[in-house]
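User: quick one, fold this
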Amino acid sequence: MSDERGLLETVLGDGRFLVALTGISLALSGGFAILQSFAGQLLPQDSHAIGMDSLALRHAANAHLLGFMFHDRVAYGGTLVAIGCGYLWLTAFPMEKREVWPWWALLFSGSTGFLAFLTYLGQGYLDTWHGVATLFLLPIFVAGLWRSRPENFSFRFIWREIPRESGPARWGRILLGMCAVGLVMAGATIGIFGMTQVFVPSDLRFIGLQPGALAHISPMLIPLISHDRAGFGGGLCSVGCLLLFIARCAELNRSLPEIVAVMGAAGFGGAIGVHFAVGYLDFFHLLPAFMGFLLFLAADGLLWMGWRRRLRAIQR
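Assistant:
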């Protein structure tokens, strides 16, 4: 029997390829942001906006200012890597089994992430590379979301898929859910600050310059910083939404604690690790991140213990 399927129809399939392509693109974009920051270079459009490259900015201000700018960008890149890995996991595991909840997770997480692009309106800096990437990815993501849509759109339908567990697995889900809610709240707070005040007191102490001095160096300097900070907040909200659905609905198997660990390593690794790289070690500034990281570690450890207990019970 001849195969008369069309090429486009076959490639698009049930939407998982498009969602996976979105995840790969996000992870690569986040990795690029991290590597570019550690290289100590501003993006071309950033240099054009403020009228100087990274070396000139270092001379006009100080090394701490550049470190601060890169620390926001690395943290944002970490969230993109975490989201991308999460989307790839969704396509490889729960979406392959035609579960309903991943579609809703993509809808909430993706909508939050793409809407975060509009945070540039807060201070008026439009990153052209960010804009082009968004215009490229948005139709791919929407097409993937449409083609993977479940037959039953009812949000209440996902509650039928909630796993019933006890012991370490149950507490792991609870702690992961708490961490997810904390990420959403932290992301919203950072996003609002990024669009309005931009800096908290510890930021200015680390930089060693007041907003007036920064504006004197370049009128577009604060809007540029605002863009990265608000984008990081949106990324945290998107990760939190995704983790909330994972904590609530995902089947407890080997891949669950693994993807939670990968997402945590990317997100917390970027957000916390970069502070040590640039020397921004204010205790109270880092305290919420460390508390969230410890909660995340406990959640993943309990999920792993729960999976091992379940595996032993099956093998008996």
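User: anything notable?
Assistant: Residues 283-315 form the longest helix (33 residues).
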